[in-house]
TrEMBL record:
Native organism: Dictyobacter arantiisoli
InterPro entries, alphabetized: ABM_dom (IPR007138), Dimeric_a/b-barrel (IPR011008)
Domain ABM: 1-76
UniProt name for this protein: ABM domain-containing protein
A Pfam entry, by short name: ABM
Transmembrane segments: none
Amino acid sequence: MVTEVAIFIALAGKEEELGQGIIQGIEFIRQHPECISANATRCVEKPGRYMLSVVWSSLEAHTQDFRNSDLFKQWRDPINGLYKENPEVLHYHVY
């Protein structure tokens, strides 16, 4: 298993909209058969910063299977244009 951690930073004035989009979109991540769990949190000190944490069965389940699926587009559609640059995405082994 690996945990994907992605940091999204909202464009100015889009903080609430990004949060709502993440809530809508995360349901598509959860539909993928290799997704074990998915949640998002909002930073207390920097309210425009969101952290997405997804546990996948493997790195390939995320980087190949999910990213090349229709679910990926459905996940991103509600948040496109609401965040700065590409999010930082890193993967961690679960212990």
